[in-house]
Amino acid sequence: METKIKVVVAGATGKTGKEVGRAVMRAGDMELAGALGHSHAGMALGDLWGDPGLPVIVSRNLADITAPYAVLVDFTEPESAYGRMMEAIARRWDIVVGTTGFSGRQYEEIAEMVRRYQVGAVIIANFSLGAWIMERLALEASRYLNRAEVLEAHPDTKKDRPSGTARRMAGLLADSWQRDVSTVPVHSVRLPGMVAHQAVIFGASGQTLTLRHDVHDRSAYSAGVLAAVRRVREFGGTVVQDMGDIITPE
Ligand SMILES: NC(=O)c1ccc[n+]([C@@H]2O[C@H](COP(=O)([O-])OP(=O)(O)OC[C@H]3O[C@@H](n4cnc5c(N)ncnc54)[C@H](OP(=O)(O)O)[C@@H]3O)[C@@H](O)[C@H]2O)c1
């Protein structure tokens, strides 16, 4: 019998972590080995998820999880996530991170740790397939159109602005045009009722082209995260930041 991949979900009590954690539970080849949270630490995850049979208590610290190896999946906030990622890597765990808002310097330090410990890391600003396809289409358009602005909209509870997805899109376009990223404006909307929305508007004489992606519910991220969990061990020593490296076309 094949051993199941042990997965610890940090942020399992949050909007995205809950969705991803439940997908891990449903995956036949994975086992939810632990859950981390902050204000809900000490509570039964089953009570929070409406699944009373689930024998997982929300822990506050990674050190509370005794499993010798697991994949850390993190959907929390950047400040605590940075330390947790470093801790997981030092335990030689592979990491799959959706949390956004890290500084460039933090990315460099994480990449250095990943190299030193030869673990696998997938750190992707948007695990939805549609967002990745949008990047491919935007890059194709950027070969012909050389002006664009990025619009993104999220709930007013989102901590970082602009979103990691929009920052990445602006960076990809700027690289394609060999210009500084500041030449690609990003506009952020924060309103109740939003989930995750992004548009890229290209403008040229007499015409515009708009690419748009909407996440209506957070199940959009689950398939990408599960694919990353399955493949992350293959990437020992490197940080994967592009969904194209982990997905297989249908
Ligand atoms: N890459 C992607 O595809 C993707 C998709 C969606 C969201 N995200 C990112 O994922 C992150 C979470 O977003 P969300 O909307 O799910 O947020 P959320 O609903 O506010 O959930 C935040 C989670 O983080 C936990 N948390 C907060 N502070 C913590 C700490 N100090 N230590 C441990 N856990 C802590 C919370 O635990 P308690 O509930 O116990 O306090 C909660 O479980 C954000 O950075 C967001 O940008 C990425």
Describe the protein in words.
The protein has 250 residues and is an alpha/beta fold. The chain folds into 2 domains: 146 residues, Rossmann fold, CATH 3.40.50.720; 88 residues, Dihydrodipicolinate Reductase, domain 2 (2-Layer Sandwich), CATH 3.30.360. Helices cover 33% and strands 23% of the residues. The strands form 2 sheets. Strands 3-2-1-4-5-6-11 form a 7-stranded parallel β-sheet, sandwiched between helices. Strands 8-7-9-10 form a 4-stranded mixed β-sheet, with helices on one face. Strand 9 and strand 10 form a beta hairpin. Helix 1 crosses helix 7, helix 3 runs parallel beside helix 4 and helix 5 packs parallel to helix 6. It is globular and about 60 Å long. 39% of the residues are buried. The model has no long low-confidence stretch (mean pLDDT 96). The protein binds NADP nicotinamide-adenine-dinucleotide phosphate. The site of NADP nicotinamide-adenine-dinucleotide phosphate (NAP) has 25 residues, from helix 1.
Per CATH, the class of the largest domain reads: Alpha Beta
| Mean pLDDT metric | 96
Let me know the CATH homologous superfamily of the largest domain.
NAD(P)-binding Rossmann-like Domain
Number of DSSP helices? 7
The radius of gyration over CA amounts to 19 Å
CATH architectural name of the largest domain: 3-Layer(aba) Sandwich
> Level of helix content?
25-40%
- Please report which band the strand proportion falls in: under 5%, 5-15%, 15-25%, 25-35%, 35-45% or over 45%: 15-25%
Shape: globular
